[in-house]
Task: inverse folding
């Protein structure tokens, strides 16, 4: 049964439970067959009185000798092994994602707090034929390499974004994908025991892996809100990376199901490190942690570890009952290449994505203020008409800004910084930065309020729009009220993709600059624009272009 069929059957099952007047845990479907005349079979669990002297016997229902995997897991594994990717739009977008994401990682290396968590566990360790970490001289095992690359990528919240019922950054998966491809390719070239069926990966193979990881993470996010049960979106990075890396390491479809099930049973991160009062830097390396666990789990399955067929649906102990309120996942569409084709780029500002259009609106308003001979000091108040997700995640009007993580997840701080300095860069978030120590930024921040527009929220979830709208209304101290400035789609949105490409390239070049000579920067930029040459390059040779000796 596919996951689509399961959605239909779950609804029927819940109806039967309510009609019987029992709780969801009292009656559990054992076998559900969509579009079949076979009656639905249920089993009623009989509660026994608790006693410390009870006889030792299982209260679990009999388990079939050969269990079928949950259809959600079967669908993922089948997609990885059996569905071709033939969308050139997806591959073209993936090339832009690759260079943009690597650039974001390089930019993060300029920050000491990021550098401090990178490198080998034992200082000075170099793994022969191991994963090389771009922008450094580290050569690590693929598990730690996945963490290093994943943490770099996500550190500044400047890589791509996907917004739906769940939020996330699908290019986080590059941490696991690049670490695995680089390690396997170097090892296979060196001879000896072959990995991943002896494959030497091309850049195009990595692009395909990115497309698939984006698709799994994004399709799961479309209808399923993990944040509403307190779980962080990096669970989807772990699952997507596990699925993709399984095939890269040479696992067959059955083993891929095993690996995916291990990712679901693995302890999932809580979102509390993204929210007051616990906002802190773990949010910047959480995706690296997910990449690390994904590669580690696949290696365990490669060495014979088994899977958990009903890890999602098992009564009481499965993911649905433990973590998801007993509700099965819902799916809007089958897996293909939709997510990569529609992914959002962060082009203009290193800021949580729900704020991007608000900051752009503030930048536009600055031009109007300048024409009027006014500045941020003349602003009395600002109202931001916005969507529900913005309010839930980054509306922190009166919360004290305690650290970098607070500031890059506060829409008021980001908008205020733009009004005061006519800029928003990663250097505006540290404690000792000009913006963080500005009394005007702090005063104005507390005079910026948010109010939800239900239509903006509706458009945010509309598959045909997926806009991230913000609209600012500025009131000046002399009583003047400026016309509302509305920005619905940020520069990196699909609707503005062509407009964004020159800016994405300029962003990549800026991020390369501090690390390499101008000649080498020009070489990397030119290579990134040459699809044929880039696609056919061995991935280890491409990574070598980013290594610093």
Result:
């Amino acid at each position: 049964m596919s996951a689509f069929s399961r959605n239909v059957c779950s609804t029927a099952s819940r109806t039967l439970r309510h009609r019987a007047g029992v709780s969801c845990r009292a009656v559990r479907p054992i076998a559900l067959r969509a579009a079949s005349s076979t009656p639905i079979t249920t089993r009623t669990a009989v509660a026994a009185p608790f006693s410390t002297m009870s006889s030792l016997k299982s209260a679990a229902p009999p388990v079939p000798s050969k269990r079928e995997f949950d259809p959600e897991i079967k669908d993922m594994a089948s997609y990885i092994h059996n569905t071709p990717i033939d969308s050139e739009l997806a591959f073209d977008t993936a090339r832009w994602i690759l260079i943009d994401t690597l650039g974001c990682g390089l930019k993060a290396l300029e920050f000491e707090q990021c550098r401090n968590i990178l490198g080998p566990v034992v200082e000075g360790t170099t793994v022969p034929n191991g994963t090389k970490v771009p922008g450094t001289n580290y050569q690590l095992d693929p598990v730690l390499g996945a963490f290093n690359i994943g943490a770099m990528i996500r550190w500044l919240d400047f890589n791509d974004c996907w917004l739906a019922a769940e939020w996330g950054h699908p290019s986080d998966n590059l941490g696991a994908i690049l670490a695995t491809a680089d390690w396997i390719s170097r090892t296979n070239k060196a001879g000896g025991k072959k990995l991943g069926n002896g494959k030497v990966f091309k850049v195009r193979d990595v692009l395909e892996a990115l497309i698939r990881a984006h698709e799994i993470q994004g399709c799961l996010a479309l209808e399923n809100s993990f944040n509403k049960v307190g779980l962080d979106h990096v669970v989807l990075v772990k699952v997507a990376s596990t699925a993709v890396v399984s095939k890269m390491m040479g696992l067959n479809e059955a083993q891929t199901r095993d690996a995916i099930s291990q990712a679901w049973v693995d302890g999932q991160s809580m979102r509390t490190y993204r929210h007051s009062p616990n906002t802190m830097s773990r949010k910047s390396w959480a995706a690296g942690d997910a990449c690390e666990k994904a590669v580690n789990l696949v290696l365990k399955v490669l060495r014979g570890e088994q899977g958990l067929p009903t890890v999602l649906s098992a009564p009481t102990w499965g993911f649905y009952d433990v973590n998801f309120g007993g509700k099965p996942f819902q799916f809007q569409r089958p897996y293909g290449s939709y997510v990569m084709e529609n992914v959002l780029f962060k082009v203009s500002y290193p800021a949580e994505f729900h704020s991007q259009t608000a900051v752009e609106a503030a930048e536009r308003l600055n031009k109007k203020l300048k024409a009027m001979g006014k500045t941020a000091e003349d602003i009395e108040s600002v109202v931001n008409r916005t969507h529900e997700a913005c309010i839930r995640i980054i509306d922190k009007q009166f919360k004290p800004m305690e650290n970098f993580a607070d500031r890059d997840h506060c829409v008021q701080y980001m908008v205020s910084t733009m009004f005061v300095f006519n800029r928003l860069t990663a250097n505006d978030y540290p404690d000792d930065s000009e913006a963080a120590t500005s009394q005007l930024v702090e005063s104005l921040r507390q005079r910026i309020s948010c109010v939800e527009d239900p239509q903006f929220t509706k458009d945010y979830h509309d598959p045909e729009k997926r806009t991230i709208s913000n609209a600012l209304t500025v009131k000046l101290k002399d009583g003047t009220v400026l016309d509302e400035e509305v920005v619905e789609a940020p520069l990196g949105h699909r609707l503005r993709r062509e407009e964004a490409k020159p800016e994405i390239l300029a962003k990549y070049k800026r991020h390369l600059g501090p690390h390499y000579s101008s000649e080498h920067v020009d070489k990397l930029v030119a290579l990134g624009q040459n699809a044929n040459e880039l696609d056919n390059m061995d991935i280890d040779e491409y990574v070598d272009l980013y290594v610093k000796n």
About this structure: Residues 8-60 have pLDDT under 50 and may be disordered. The CA atoms of residues 51 and 57 lie 13 Å apart.
